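Form 7-S
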Amino acid sequence: MKILLTGATGYIGKRLLPALVEQGHTVVCCVRDPERFAPPKSLRPNIEIVVLDLLKEDTLVNIPQDIDGAFTWFIPCLPKRITKSWKSNLR
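Output:
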């Protein structure tokens, strides 16, 4: 499966990424700053990196359309306009 992972540079994301790759998934890692994202070389063949700031609506277009699932931790705290836009990009 192709999994979207928001917060790939965060505490949970850093720990979840290897587990997802180990299970055979391709992981789309969402990061605000790609300079801060340094995954192990062993994981790189199974990941894609997209620049995404969930508080900047114009970056939502970077979310791939062919996602099978997602791990996110932010939805309840976002303003409604951002949540609506984000959901419209996940089809």
